[in-house]
Design goal:
It contains seven helices and eight strands. With 244 residues, it is of the alpha+beta class. Among the domains are: 62-108, no CATH class; 122-243, no CATH class. It has a five-stranded antiparallel β-sheet. It starts with 39 loop residues before the first helix and ends with a strand. Bound molecules: zinc ion.
Length: 244
Amino acid sequence: MARCIFCMTKTGPFSTREHVLPESLGGGEWAVLPNGLLCDSCQNKFGSEIEQQALGDYPFSLLRTFLGIPTKKGKAPWFESWEGIIRASLLPGTVGYDPAPVFEQAVLEGKKTVIRVLAHPLKPDMICRFLLKMGVEVVAWDNEQDVFCSKFDEARRFALTGEKTGKWWYLQRERMDVVSRCFTQGITPDEWANNVKLEVAKLEGEHEMFHLSLLYLDMLVPLTRVITPQVEGLEEPEYRLFWI
Ligand SMILES: [Zn+2]
């Protein structure tokens, strides 16, 4: 029987196809959630509000642009910063750059040769909600009954509505040596596809944690809010903890 894993509606409608990992992060047919688990209204809300903002924010915007992961419509990804617009290019080791008006002259005259890009999310709450959305969907993937367990209620509510009763967090790890190699040498679609992983780990005390792994990037978010982060020995900038 159909039932939405976020708003719990049983009446739907359930007519859309949901990619647990968005197509613009390489989610293909394998990433489609079985029918009847996500209603059209929730899918639309996630797609238009949360995913869009998360995918346009660090770290996903940088990842997509520097590695040249095409958008859902097959276009080259780009992002905007105060420096101007940075675009993916087809040549490994290069990106396109349209300077912001204030820098145009300096770029033309060769006075500006360095571009600095902010490596920090502007909306970490959207990143966190996006991760929670994927995490709850992966729980449903693994077991269509378990996902309705009340221990996930906070996660599904925060993901869908942004409402929460306490702080949430996510942990990010970027392996910069891998980023540099992938950027300068380029990656093949196979290399990308073989290094994408979404999994939910069961921890002691019925707690569960979602792990998203994308080539050089790992992100971890608790699906049951009470888990406290264990970050001893995890040094910045490779590891970064974000509280929301
Ligand atoms: Zn729903």
